[in-house]
Amino acid sequence: MRKIFAPLRRFFCAALPALVLGASLAGCGAGSSFSASSGPASAQGQAEPLRIVCTTFPLYDWARQLTQGASVQLELLQQGGTDLHSYQPTARDILSLTEADLFFYVGGESDGWVEQALAQAPSETRRDLSAMELLADRLLPVPQLEGMEEEEHHEEEEEEDEHVWLSLKNARAACQGLCQALQEADESQAELFQANGRQYDQALEELDDRYTQTLASASRRTLLVGDRFPFCYLAADYGLHCYAAFSGCSADSEASFETVAYLADRLEAEALPAVLILEGSDTDLASTIIQNTSSRDQEILVLDSMQSVSPAEIEEGASYLGLMEQNLTVLQTALA
Questions:
Q1: 3-state DSSP call for residue 301?
Q2: Could you tell me which of 155, 96, 92, 160 has the C-alpha nearest to residue 131?
Q3: SS3 276
Q4: Global pTM?
């Protein structure tokens, strides 16, 4: 593991306020990062464990699965329930990047802080890996669904949706790229990474097959989300039609009368049994949509976008596959 000399540490601590003030994200700063070790501890004279820093829970869990039994130290930057869109790096986070062997991040608009952070945390040996770059040929534009509150976009730039992890097919492709990067970062553990990669790919494929079979036999093909909509990749994978109040990265929390009226009309006209919301969201908007139907008897169900998984939930066994399995159960009810 690379050490940081005292003058360099003082430099980063001094530079951090400018970094945070210049970050493109809004909201409260994150607390200290969450880390875990895997495999045997290094004895004196032996090589230090491979240090991997990940920005979000899905990426962290993919790395955790691919490094089972290996000598690694994993660190999750976005933690404590901090939403992906409101994360800002701390001084400790910047220092972690200087010592990392592999930095794995999403690469979308919400990672706008990364470029400046990496400039403040130079390293000749660290590999910086973007999930969106790994999935460059699979990216979709941010959707503007029927009835959705309109977002301001620059006409010359078509923004790509950053919620790439909410697709099991994307997860398989990204994990293949991550597995290759791990082998290149530590050749002594390459065979173990390969074996873990094959096993995890099989688990992802099996759940993807279950999604395909289950949703193909569902009574409906339409979802209505009374919240932000980060599920365009999931919907595209299985041919689902969706309505939603806001785009996936929207900062809005209050919908216009027109949006509420439109979603209530669609909910009633298509006899949908439920309104979906994201984890951590309140039910106010969903309840308002339901109250504007004649029956007013629809359920409110929660789809987990995995943007605010906490260390406590990780300690209790939260995993990418487990949360995607829970989402499948929710979709079965919403499409019944």
A1: strand
A2: 160
A3: strand
A4: 0.86
**Rounded to the nearest 5°, which phi and psi values hold at 133?**
-70, -40
Beta bridge partners of 75: 35, 53
Single out the residue of 197, 170, 163 nearest to residue 181, CA to CA: 197
Largest CA distance in the chain: 72
Helix ranges restricted to H, 186-310:
190-216, 232-238, 257-269, 284-291
d(C-alpha 61, C-alpha 110), whole Å: 19
SS3 for 148? coil
CB-count burial class (<10 Å; 0-12, 13-18, 19+) for 221: middle
Dihedral of CA atoms 113, 114, 116, 120 in degrees, nearest 10, equals 130
| C-alpha 250: how far from chain center | 15
| Contact call for residues 311 and 34 (beta carbons, < 8 A) | yes
∠ Cα 320 182 125 (to 5°): 125
pLDDT in tens, 115-158: 889 988 889 999 999 999 999 999 999 998 988 887 665 445 67
The stretches of 158-189 forming alpha helices (DSSP H) are 168-185
Residue 14: predicted pLDDT: 39
How many other CB atoms sit within 10 Å of the CB of residue 153? Answer: 13
* Closest to 229 in 3D by CA, of 240, 215, 217: 240
CA atoms within 13 A of residue 16's CA, in its CB half-sphere: 15
